[in-house]
Task: structure prediction
Amino acid sequence: MEKFKKIIGKLILCLCEVAVGIVLFINPEGFTKMIVIGVGILFCVLGVLNAITYFSTEPEEAALSQQLTKGLISLAVGIFLVYKADWIVRSFMPITVFYGIAALLTGILKLQWTVDMIRLKRGMWQTTGIAAVLSIILAIVIFSSPFKVRQTLWTFTAIALILTGVVDGVSAILSQREPKFTIE
Result:
């Protein structure tokens, strides 16, 4: 049970990665639209909170903070994102950059895990290293955007996310076993 507690965060990340890959594979535009709407809702909440903060602060301090302006701008951006999510998804290929950033950050995190496993003289660090390299390659492919068709890029991203999530999950589970060999 103690070993399971140590890897729960890694397993949750792996499951999320596989789930995002599956949803992205099934309905990339719908998933991306959900993300855009989610970000829009966050902007709306932030806008309302800024406005509330403005009106609940002393007038002199509120005038200096410009919370009302920040709130109204956040609210406007949020409303635009929520109501124009379809247009944004269809019009802006750079949204895939979001997936590239997520893949790059995940790859860097996996690289950290690999180096940790090597320094701790654990076996099975190679599978985590392979997953790190796959995630970083995925990010490079997305950033260089060699595909002209958005659907192809999303399919490639979905497959890569599923594969790296599975490899990471297997690696996380196997890394908790006592190493049969150590790195010298």
